[in-house]
Fold this protein.
Amino acid sequence: MDSTALDKNDRAILRALQQDGRATITALALELNMSESACRRRIEKLERDKVITAYSCEIDPQKLGLTINVFVSISLNAQTDKDLTSFERTIKSQPEILECWLMTGQDDYLLRVVARDIEDLERIHREVLTKLPNVSRINTAIAMRAVSRGKSVHI
């Protein structure tokens, strides 16, 4: 579905669900001044069209003892399809790596990793990052604090 195919009601539903993904159809319909059946149909279409790709909850890593956020820049030895696929497949199996982005510029990938403490970060570096396939360089930057964390896509 192309963004121009979204009307004001679709956009209103998306904004409301970004604020509260657990909102019931009844609550959404009431808030958006539409019937429950129309609201349900629109949500189902947004899901079918992959505009809505998932429903999830956001967990505070610090409450789980994961107090260090680390951004890791990775450069590969080569960027063939085989090399990229192998690297990406391996990344997806590493629970410590929360996000992985293919980048333009000097580095090939940017990872977001969480760790309990510096010792845990050292373990992740030694046991996970250095064992990733085809890596030529690893650069880590520890985040001091989040200044802004966007949860919503501007609609």
Notes: The domain at 3-48 is CATH 1.10.10.10 (Arc Repressor Mutant, subunit A). The CA atoms of residues 71 and 133 lie 19 Å apart. Helices lie at 8-19, 25-32, 36-48, 81-92, 118-127.
